[in-house]
Amino acid sequence: MSIYQDHLVKRQADERQAVELLAVLANLGVQNVNVLFFGERVSLSVSDILAKHAASGISVADTLAFVKGLDIANTAIDVGQAVKSGKKASDFMGGTPIPATDVVLYGFGRIGRILARLLMSCPASDKGLQLKAIVVRPAGEGDLAKRGSLLERDSVHGWFDGAVQISEENSGIIVNGRFIKFIYASDPSEVDYTAYGIKDAIVIDNTGKWKDEAGLGKHLQSKGVKKVLLTAPAKGEVKNIVYGVNHDTIGGDAIVSAASCTTNAITPTLKVLHDEYGIINGHMETVHAFTNDQNLVDNHHKADRRGRAAPLNMVMTSTGAASAVAKAIPELKGKLSGNAIRVPTPNVSLAILNLNFEKAVGTADELNAFIKTKSQSIQWQEQIDYSDSPEAVSTDFVGSEKVAIFDAKATIASDNRATLYVWYDNEMGYSTQVIRVAEEMAVNG
What we know:
The chain contains 11 helices and 20 strands. The protein is α/β, with parallel strands linked by helices.
């Protein structure tokens, strides 16, 4: 048999096992089991199954044998970590059923639509987060069709993997067979969610219009709302939460913030570095994709420089991400400065961390090895990814659900100083963190 035939036979065997594996994973989804593979969601496709196994070095056959033995429900399991560490299916037990929690997206911009995609890509279930409604400002005829089209088609992330249908008679859309009500309002005070069968909901505010307790508290005055999650840095006493770092402080808070995309990108890496080496001080510069609040062409803008054409210029601006880190890691208060440069790309940004440490970090290779170990740990694998490709560029990370991708090839380290580069999909990566915070809020009642 030739080498070509050898590979063909192996590929065909892997494909058959991947198909069988998909059936088992789908059944686990029905049992409310959140299946991960080294911190990543498993897409129900043969190509994704094969790609993940090829990258990990784990055989599809081993994973299939493991999941076939699972008898669990209402829990999460990382099958990649389990197989790699030699665990048995009998080592895992089911959890307590997660109650259904109604979710309302207040605003339907870039983050709102990514959140909708993530929520509606999960297997249909009567447990966990249930997207029931989307609130947008009053608009003219044909608005519903345009909103549905924007969910279905995306210039950055491509087509939505599912079906989107318009229900004009019910003022909503049907996504993968599930109905989502569209509510038109200019202010939270105008909405009675109970009129649509929605109760005790978590409102995820994507507008950024209100950022303090007084403003966000308007949502709590609406009938049917129990909690509010802001997808922007909060002001005042509202907690800024970076999942994986300080989500255990949410408790019973009715209003919290998921901080910013940049804060989420840098905080996990800063946390592991500070715990190991002790950060004395440093500076963070984010080379950030342009956003909706900039002009396409030169025009008046209330903020400095943001009125200049975003697709044509690098635009100096400010960021509160560095100082916001202290809300998640109090020991770093006053130790980090930060600035931002908006650049002519629509998505994926790069944070550059210039840091001084209490302990020597060794060489770049030694520091990289430390980060790689952390990125592969159960604690940090959902937040931190690791790239050592000499050809990696920003578009390679479009769609990454990891909130930060450490670029090992760019590391500079000497004695007690280091310059580190962290990529992040400022839309998708951040949105996965928002979902995790919402789930934590739901579990905490």
